[in-house]
Amino acid sequence: MRAPFDTLQIAATLLTLSLCAPIVSATDFDDPPGAEPRFDEGILELLPGVEVQGVLDRYGFSLLDSIESRNIHLVSFQPALTDEQFEALFLTDPEIDHSELNFDTGNSGPSTGSLFFNVLPVEFTDQPVWNTIGAGEAQATATGAGVTVAIIDTGIDTTNPMFQANIHPAAIGFVDGPADILDDGNGLNDDNQGLPDELVGHGTWVAGIIRYIAPDATLLPIRALNDEGFTDAFTLAKAIYHATENGADVINMSLGSVAQVRIVERAVDEASALGVIPIAAAGNQGVAQPEFPAGNNKAAGIAAVQLDGTLTDFTNRSGSSGNTRLLMAAPGVNIVGPIPGGFAEASGTSAAAPMVAGTAALLKQLGTLRRFDDLETMAQQTAVDIRDQNPGIDEDAWGAGMLDIAAAVAWEGPCYADLTDNDVLDLADLQAFIQRFQMHDESVDFVVPRGVWDLADLQFFIGSFVSGCP
């Protein structure tokens, strides 16, 4: 464990915190992580019941890691096969469901130019952003009690009193061992770019934002990014599955990659289908293409705006092709949060995402957020219209608008029994429920445990039908 930060160390080691994690420095790179696959690393998704050892022996691969619950494995495959041959394995091997290359999840673009300095705790609690988004007003209605928010990041400062209560027992590390969730570094410049331990403090900063908005939520830290802010697609998917399997209601991912990897997509899709709400930062490259997983249609991608709703020049926006649309925007400029040894100010979509994650925790407590589609409806009906603040910019660039937590918790929620979506409850909705229930459609999987269609779902539907629409 590293020694506590002093002021100069905070300023130096957190110089690049303003980027959406994972990022490494203020330097521009020719090939951002995700542009090229990791050398000789591939991912095998095997059919149920297939033993991985037989596949390893058949091709001469070495096993690096596994997600045993999904029969997914990370292997070293060169020099046995080329990249192209490995990717094509699933086409000819009946035991392999899918094969793909492993990619870094890393640098999300050039620096946003934010400054870092040691600040007083009062500057965290009294910063204007909380009033702008209505956080205090919302807490009179909900505090996130009974809700678990997973934070896939660099870990968390477990010595900070802010985080010593309500930490989930399934907290885990995928960097330096399962028991190590501490947000610290090794003092080395492992990536040979910029400074040592450039992203230490990022996870603590993100967790602090969530903790402020949803003070009674249980946090599930998953340390998947190293102290330089890097992970890879396999580890990210492993972290998402861990969160899903251990009762997370919301998953915050202030990270991204330019590579769209199927293993991550599947993990996000499964989480969403089970009623978990995946939230992801859009990225800070200033381009019309969200990073992934924010670009996944079952993850809520979040852009960053100024306090007045003006879109920042560094935030990524919805895809120009229209097939990757962000959910909404939230403030992401000069946000103060806790770090190991104190507090710091930084900017980026890394701050915007946890503001929405904290809001999702409040709505989960209230019962108005049961499915991913509910989050989209909430955004459309409660977000602040920021078109006037952004003249000449396509309004789809930021999604529904800017986060308003007070309006979100006052939202009455969807009419779950209106399955025909016509604002009328009648025989057609009953017929739709029966049909979808028999097909195991996720739109009628209302209650925990998710993925099970039983009497509890029927009782919930009948209760909603009898109560009528809000």
Keywords:
470 residues; alpha/beta; Alpha-Beta Plaits; Rossmann fold; five-stranded antiparallel beta sheet; 15 helices; 29% helix; 16% strand
Overview of this protein structure:
- By secondary structure, the chain is an alpha/beta fold.
- The chain folds into 3 domains: 37-105, Alpha-Beta Plaits; 121-410, 3-Layer(aba) Sandwich (Rossmann fold); 427-467, no CATH class.
- The chain is 29% helix and 16% strand.
- It contains 15 helices and 14 strands.
- The protein has helices spanning 7-13, 52-59, 83-87, 89-92, 121-125, 129-133, 135-138, 202-213, 233-245, 262-273, 349-366, 372-382, 405-410, 427-438, 455-467; strands at residues 37-46, 62-67, 72-76, 96-105, 148-153, 172-173, 218-223, 231-232, 250-253, 277-281, 300-305, 328-331, 335-339, 342-346.
- The strands form 3 sheets. It has a 7-stranded parallel beta sheet, sandwiched between helices. Strands 2-3-1-4-8 form a 5-stranded antiparallel beta sheet.
- Strand 13 and strand 14 form a beta hairpin.
Classify the beta-strand content into a percent band: 15-25%
Q: What's the helix-strand series?
A: HEHEEHHEHHHEEHEEHEHEEEEEHHHHH
Rg over C-alpha atoms, rounded to the nearest angstrom: 22 Å
What is the CATH architecture assignment of the largest domain?
Answer: 3-Layer(aba) Sandwich
**Proportion in helices:** 25-40%
What is the CATH C-level name of the largest domain?
Alpha Beta
> Per the principal axes of the C-alpha atoms, what is the gross shape?
globular
Oligomer: single chain
Q: In what order do the strands lie side by side in the largest sheet?
A: 6-7-5-9-10-11-12
CATH superfamily of the largest domain: Peptidase S8/S53 domain
The number of distinct structural domains comes to 3
- In the CATH scheme, what's the topology name of the largest domain? Rossmann fold
Q: How many DSSP E strands? A: 14
Number of helices: 15
